[in-house]
Amino acid sequence: MVSRRNKTIASLSLFLAVWAWNASAAAVKGETAGVDVGALSSPQIEEQLQNCSLVQALNAHKVASSPSGSSLTSKIFAFLFPGSPAVNALLATLYISGPPNFLLALCPPNIDPSSLSVMVAFAVGGLLGDTLFHLLPEIFLGEDEHDKVKFVMVEPNKNLLLGVAIMVGFVTFVAMDKSLRIATGGEGGHDHSHGHVHEKTEPIATTTGTELNGSKDSVRARKPAAKASTPSDTPREPEKEINPSVKLGGYLNLIADFTHNITDGLAMSSSFYASPTIGATTTVAVFFHEIPHEVGDFALLIQSGFSKRAAMGAQFVTALGALLGTCIGIAIQELGGNSASEGLEGPGLFGTSLRWGDMLLPFTAGTFLYVGTVAVIPELLETGPEKGKELRKTITQFAAMFTGAGIMLA
């Protein structure tokens, strides 16, 4: 049986627990007295939570259990992106647009885009890795911080709006690709991997003299015709008639590439305003995607009748789309704000804490999902008749894809 002394101790412990609970509740009530809880922004709620003794104890435990250390990657990112989110976004745009375009000067005009399949697979791994490992967790949960624990507040319609923004980004690229295919008569869209580009050219036969009838006369005429060929005539041999639809496809591809680069700029601005780490990883993913992308576009323009210099100039003009997209994204973030911005009052979109700036990152994730899957995977699935060669090629592509994804985990 329980002794009277133990009963007394148990009752006293229960009384003290209830008293402590009421005291803490009264303290919290006193701190929030006269404050409209519904009007608090996400940063204000987070600040109130960080003042809680339990949260502070959790923060101390987190710091003690996982001591921080600056890795080589973080030092490199800090060196490349030393400024504010806007400055870092502009620097990232310069990084992803400049080097890939300068590399075109080293590309031969007759480069075969299908030879870039391994590079394309590497870029796919980087894009999907950045989307799945960084962008989507950041969109729905936020980024982890070393010195504090964070809490996610579930709001009605918030996740729904974020999902809608992802779908809008995906469907935007579907519509753009479909429009390009319709404009070119169904001969192909803006393929981000730029695998095999087929030209439909009509062969034009030319003769060096009058047409000869009869097999004997034809045989006799071959040698004089060959002798009549002089070095001054040789430059005319590569000239061939370009199908008008191929020319149109080249110009429409420039428009699509310009639009695509605008979304790259939006990705730079939205990711750096989310966090420096997200911005840096997104920059790396887009950079490795841009190399085969730019080379593929360059080859397509050459096949559309552009000279090498004209193709490089056109690619440089389309690269300005990334700068335009970055500036648009910065303007949206600065003027529209995001849920982490200070000084914003009133409810956000559809009664949630979301602002217009918060919708750019999920839009970017939607475009990356399209580019990394629908626009590129079909090219990687193309196989030839030689089974052994295709098997080795497939293993190499998968290794490149996993390497690209692994870099996003570093």
UniProtKB/TrEMBL annotation:
Residues 1-25 form the signal peptide. Keywords: Membrane, Signal, Transmembrane, Transmembrane helix. Residues 188-202 have a biased composition (Basic and acidic residues). The chain crosses the membrane at residues 76-96, 116-140, 160-176, 310-332, 359-381. Residues 204-216 have a biased composition (Polar residues). Residues 185-244 are annotated as: Disordered. The keyword Chloroplast does not apply. It is found in: Membrane. Pfam families: Zip. This is Uncharacterized protein. It comes from Paraconiothyrium brasiliense.
